[in-house]
Structure prediction request, 104 residues.
Amino acid sequence: MSTSSDDANKLIVSAVSSGAGADRQVLANLLASCVERRRRQLGFSVERAAELAGIPVWQWNALERGWVPSDPNVLKAIAWTLQACYHHLSLIAEVSLYNQDWAA
Prediction:
């Protein structure tokens, strides 16, 4: 269940470069973009990803629309589900939260 740092870095770069540049709105949605892209790479439906993470489907949908979990255990479950490094995902979450404050 491990993923390389290179995979995580590619995911981040892909999410940032796919927008209109690294502006605040793109960064505010960085976690949502990374989560959705990784879920699709793994071939999971939203329902399956939510089930694996042990969270309600509505919460996973909110995650892919920009919600950033404040509970580290939820973030760990999401990282496990996405076969991603928790520390990378946590950093992405912090970047998103910081920029949501500025983008609002």
